[in-house]
């Protein structure tokens, strides 16, 4: 922590026990513990405040940059591209030509769909298909 090892801590504890006395040492240790906990809480809160301010400053800088580049409209202006006047249709993404059917098409083995496999198999072979 501060470059103090176990032997140094042991020496400090022995000196504190001799100087303060065994009756008041537990109370002093509790007070020191509370003080360190409060110090840690305050430093964590200060760090959090600095991080929040830094994040807000970066967001403000990014917003100013995007406004200057015209990538976002200024506040209070109308959208120059409202959805009802935008006539550009978005095309569905093209499927790669790999020979394999997409997983939701009901393909059987060899990339054939269930309907294609049924029509190529011929007439059904059941009791109703035999005449005679």
- The overall average pLDDT, rounded, is 75
**What is the tally of beta strands?**
0
- What Rg, in angstroms, do the CA atoms define? 38 Å
Question: Structural class, judged by helices and strands?
Answer: mainly alpha
Secondary-structure element series: HHH
Largest sheet: none
**Terminal Cα span:** 97 Å
**SS element count, helices:** 3
Helix content: 40-55%
| Shape, principal axes of CA atoms | rod-shaped
Strand percentage: under 5%
Please mark out the parts with pLDDT under 50 across 5 or more consecutive residues, or reply none: none
How is this structure best described in words?
This protein has a domain at 6-69. 52% of the residues lie in helices and 0% in strands. The protein has helices spanning 6-20, 25-69, 114-121. The termini are far apart.
């Amino acid at each position: 922590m501060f470059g103090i090892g176990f032997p140094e801590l042991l020496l400090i504890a022995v000196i504190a026990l001799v100087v303060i006395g065994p009756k008041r040492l537990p109370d002093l240790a509790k007070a020191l513990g509370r003080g360190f906990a409060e110090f840690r809480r305050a430093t964590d809160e200060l760090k959090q405040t600095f991080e929040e301010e830094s994040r807000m400053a970066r967001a403000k800088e990014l917003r100013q940059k995007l406004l200057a580049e015209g990538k976002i409209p200024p506040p209070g202006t109308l959208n120059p591209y409202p959805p009802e006047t935008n006539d550009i249709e978005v095309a569905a993404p093209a499927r790669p030509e790999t020979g394999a059917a997409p997983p939701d098409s009901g393909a059987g083995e060899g990339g054939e769909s269930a309907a294609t496999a049924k029509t190529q198999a011929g007439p059904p072979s059941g009791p109703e298909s035999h005449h005679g």
